[in-house]
What we know:
single chain, globular
Amino acid sequence: MSSTSQDKHFAVSVAEHPALELIGMKIRTTMQTCQEDCPKMWHDTFAPWIHRLYPESNCPSWGASTAYDAATGSFDYWTLLKAPQGQPIPKELKNFTLPAGLYAQCVLTSVAEIHTAYHYLYSRWLPSQTTYVGLEDGVCFEYGPPDFCQTGRMNICIPVARR
C-alpha cells in the first residue's frame, strides 16, 4: 500500500542551535499563499542577491517564518544568508537574528517536501511528544547547505522547549 504525502514520516531530531546574524528580505504571506509566494521570492527577488554577493561559490541560505498571526494565518517570511565579510550590506537587505534555542529538525530530500514536513512536525510529531512542546511565538526556519542546488537536501527546524 503506498502512502500519500500527508502520511509521510520524517525522522526528527532535537538539537540546540546557536544564534546567527544574517541579512535578507521579507514578505508578508499567508498559509494559503505561501507555497507560491515563498518560492517566487527566492527565485525572482532573492537569488540575484545571492549571486551578486557570492558570485564564485555556493553559500548556505535560510528561510525563516516569524510573526505568525493565527487569526489571519499570515506571517513574515524571510530569505536569508550570511553577510559577506568585508562588503557593505546593500540597503535593500535588512539584518535578521536567527535566535539561539532548541529546535526539532528533519532533513528533506527536496524543497517540494517543505509543506508536508511542516505539516508532519506540527500535526503529528508535536502532538505525540511527551518530552517537548512547540513554541508558538518562535522562529521556524529552513536551512539549505552550500550543496543544496546539487543535492536538494535541506533541513527544516521548529522551536521547541522541554516540558
